[in-house]
Amino acid sequence: MNKKQLSHFEKRLLEERARVVKELGHYDESFNSTLQGSDGDLSSYSFHMADQGTDAMEREKQFLFASQEGRYLWHVNEALRRLYQTPEKFGKCHDCGEDIGFERLDALPHARLCIKCKAKEEDGKRR
After folding, report:
1. Exposure letters 57-72 (e unless 16+ CB within 10 A, then b)
2. What's the pTM?
């Protein structure tokens, strides 16, 4: 992989990292906002059991989305680490050592596996 391609992927990874950090900041703000502020009511308690259930479901949903973004951020950071520490190995499949296609890396700059190895991995998980 040449230096121009490496700098392209570095830029893509840094953009993805900034987007995810911003998104996690939004989740942090929503977690830290009070129940009173979220619905505009003077009381921080729901008066109806259905409202309590809805509030709990929304908090759970936000937590799951934030958790998913956190895992994605970890993958992006790992890809940046690979890019900076061993740039000669970046873009090579971790299983077979073949080059990962430019189109795949452009779509998923944090990809560790080529299409064939990723398909094998997913088939193994299904069984």
Report:
1. eeeeeeeeebeebeeb
2. 0.73
